[in-house]
Specification:
Helices cover 54% and strands 11% of the residues. The protein is α/β, with parallel strands linked by helices and 185 residues long. The chain folds into 2 domains: 3-129, Rossmann fold; 145-184. A 4-stranded parallel β-sheet has the order 2-1-3-4. Strand 1, helix 1 (17-22) and strand 2 (28-33) form a beta-alpha-beta unit. Helix 4 packs antiparallel against helix 5, helix 6 packs across helix 8 (172-184) and helix 7 (161-168) packs across helix 8.
């Protein structure tokens, strides 16, 4: 029997240390830095699901580290249960599979994890919409040829690129790039 630990964070700039510490007593820890929104892009998890065998245990800090939506979490747990592989959640041992109560708790918590992810997406979309409305998101504002000619003329008269960029509502780099294209025309 081997006890595997599985730790996952959603992006490369996030830290796995908290999960590694919680999984310190396992035989082998597998980690990955990838979104848990679906199973298709998680090669470490796929590998783990392949190498485990009857009697092994997979230990995870929390359900949302294993999957972020109810269907995926339940499918993973069912696949492991069919192989007689145990699944343990450190943050909530009452959800460990093997009992009717554990499976019920797992289903309820998985639904909450999915709900939380949907709320995060909604808040993110709202924030992006506000940032776009304020001109702080997305592709930098493009300058028209007339604006570039106007700015080039004023620059030739001694105005700074920083002042011109601020007036036109673009970055200095956008203005420098526009000047370069203007000079090539």
């Amino acid at each position: 029997m081997t006890v595997y630990g599985y730790a996952r964070v959603s992006s490369t700039d996030q830290n796995l240390d908290r999960q590694r510490e919680a999984l310190a007593d396992v035989d082998k820890i597998l980690t990955e830095k990838v979104s848990g929104k679906n199973r298709t892009d998680r090669p470490v998890l796929d590998s783990l699901l392949t190498i485990v065998s009857e009697g092994d245990v997979i230990r995870v800090k929390s359900t949302d580290r294993l999957a972020r939506n109810t269907a995926d979490l339940l499918a993973i747990v069912r696949q492991l249960a069919d192989k007689n592989v145990g699944v343990e959640f450190i943050d909530n041992p009452g959800m460990n599979i093997g009992t009717a109560q554990g499976e019920l708790m797992l289903t309820v918590f998985a639904a909450f994890a999915q709900f939380e992810r949907e709320l995060i997406r909604e808040r993110q979309a709202e924030g992006i919409a506000i940032a776009k409305a304020e001109g702080r998101f997305g592709k930098p504002k493009a300058l028209t040829p007339t604006q570039v000619a106007y700015a080039a003329d004023r620059r030739a008269k001694g105005e700074t690129v920083a002042d011109l960029a601020k007036e036109l509502g673009v970055s200095r780099q956008t203005l420098y790039s526009a000047f370069k294209r203007h000079a090539q025309d």
